[in-house]
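Lab notebook, page 48
Experiment: co-folding of the full assembly
Goal: obtain a model of how the components sit together before planning crosslinking
Operator: M.T.
Materials (sequences as entered):
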Amino acid sequence: MQHVSDSKPKLNMSPPAADSYQQGSIRMTLENTDLWKSFDKIGTEMIITKHGRRMFPHCSISVSGLHPFANYVIMVDMVPVDSFKYKWKKEQWEIAGKAEPQPPCRTYVHPDSPAPGSHWMKQSLSFLKMKLTNNTLDQHGHIILHSMHRYYPRFHITQADSPYTVRWGPFQTFSFPETVFTAVTAYQNSKITKLKIDHNPFAKGFREGGTHSHSKRCRSNGSPAAKRAMLERNAPPSSPPCLQRMPSTSHSEHAEKSQASTHPSVKGGNPSGWALEQDPTESLHTELLDLHENDYSFEEQMVPASVPYQPYRSVDYPRYLLPSNDIDVAHTPVPPPSHPLAIPEHNSQQHTYYNHPYQHNHVADWSQYPLFSYSCW
DNA sequence: TCCTCTAACACTTTTGAATCGC
DNA sequence: AGCGATTCAAAAGTGTTAGAGG
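Observation: model returned without errors.
Model output:
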């Protein structure tokens, strides 16, 4: 748990009046960044199944800068990284054509929502129970994704006394470059399999390798990816799971590479294109050690939004606002672009905006990803 | 032939009810 | 009676695999 409240701008240190917690004071930090980065280096893959599969690594965040006594709702949705469909060919991801039409966009609301800011800030928030599915008819509220497409989770915080009052509230949105993943129905990259088995306790039943069922079912005509994974697991023990702080490139490099990732040429194991190009045969451990020199504090990535977050003013900000032109445009946060991670102007992954498409000028951008077509908690 | 998806599998971890002792 | 600790079975979740289907 990383508390960052000390480092936030010391604005309005007067008593907790209405505007004490104002613009840009909300800060979100991704937990398990080391793990995320180690997966991102290879090219994170997330299994999606008909009945829903949890993410691994799972989304876990910490938040600071909230008003302790105001209620907030925190939620996450998945956003396509680009408009391509991918395929795994010859040990690397390649573009396989245009993306399929977006499935129904769903939002996972953190089960603690709504809760006061003090609750959200006292410990990290886990979205462990969020599940991903490829079943467009899913009735369980899982996040629906297309396989072989790339997505990233997007976190939203808004003041609301109940999940039902969220719709018209001001949002702050956060995303993290290292959380981009490719949705798959079966693992393609054996490095991902190995990394997951090293970190995921549920996979221990398979890592032993010598179980009766495995020895019975091990056959030479399995899928290529499966055979690769099996060979690697039976190989001599490699480097231990790398749990030290993972290195990464600077944030500006991340931003540059996120731009590059939108280009249709994808080479190397990481479909996000953010990682440095490296020999795919090089061991993961080596890759991590090589990059450790560029270690940095992730907090530095979080740049306060350029647009003010609407402060805690329950009277001034009645809920259930109807679409109207009365909104003060000068104080109305702008909507995010369709792909926030590709923003080149500044390195912030934080956005502030109103969820209602009528309240800003970029209806097309935002309405592409409705936040509340479905919620679960 | 290749690629993608699904269900079944064996195993571990988590969860929650039941029991026990203080 | 109430509380906390322990035990144990069921449920949940995992990656791998074979086979079906496009």
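Interpretation: Residues 47, 53-54, 56, 186-187, 193, 196-197, 200-207, 213-214, 217-219, 221-223, 226, 229-230 of chain A lie near DNA strand C (CB under 10 Å from a C1').
Next step: discuss with group before ordering constructs.
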